[in-house]
Amino acid sequence: STPTRPLIAGNWKMNGTDAALDELARLKTLLGEAPGLAAEVLVCPPSTLIHRAAQIAEGSDFRVGGQDCHWLASGAHTGDISAAMLLDAGASHVILGHSERRADHGETDAIVREKTKAALAGGLVPIVCVGETEAERVEGRANRVIAEQLAGSLPDESGAGPMVIAYEPVWAIGTGRTATLADIAEMHAHMRALLVERFGEAGRAARLLYGGSVKPSNAAEILAVPDVDGALVGGASLMADDFFSIVVAA
Ligand code: PEP
Q: Sorted alphabetically, which InterPro entries does this protein's record hold (predicted)?
């Protein structure tokens, strides 16, 4: 079976203090006024807001996720946060291996794989991010890079739980540039084939999100591409009305 409901996930990155919770209250109102939408909705605020965001999400049609977790459950790791802590704060999902974490914190595929194991063991749905750089695409290596990232970042355990993968070409993140629909279609078909080859039915059921400058004006055409089962949205997730427009487009 292929995924039944698309997933629209917002990644707030390092944005948002108390006042940003007003946007979540607004999102709750908008979702409440539009029952029966096709998409599942997730918002990943910074860790400091997860608990309060989850309280707002109660009785609403969106859920809350983290943006990273450690590969261990607890211990002497100053500044880190574990899957158990995210779950305790009210998160259901966690973004792992985002290209900004790979770049800013040196996260390798092996680290992302350990974090993905920890998320699964801790009861969270991992959203594992992959994406090629512009140079890799220009050199014709995008398919190989994504194959390597998927092979290295996903533990065998991924086959046992709900699988969410986000394809985010690095050059399309926060730049206003999106991949062409043809490039997205080709990459998502490539990823689907690799996931089915490795995980069988679980790979067929995996949700494959596209991310990279998704906005209200391009969401519908991107979400209509075969094997695109949702979107990971950065900048356009910060304002409830923009984010809601993308949810409606799914
Ligand atoms: C992201 O970083 O996950 C992302 C897709 O960002 P943006 O939508 O701002 O390009």
A: Aldolase_TIM, TIM_sf, TrioseP_Isoase_bac/euk, Triosephosphate_isomerase, Triosephosphate_isomerase_AS
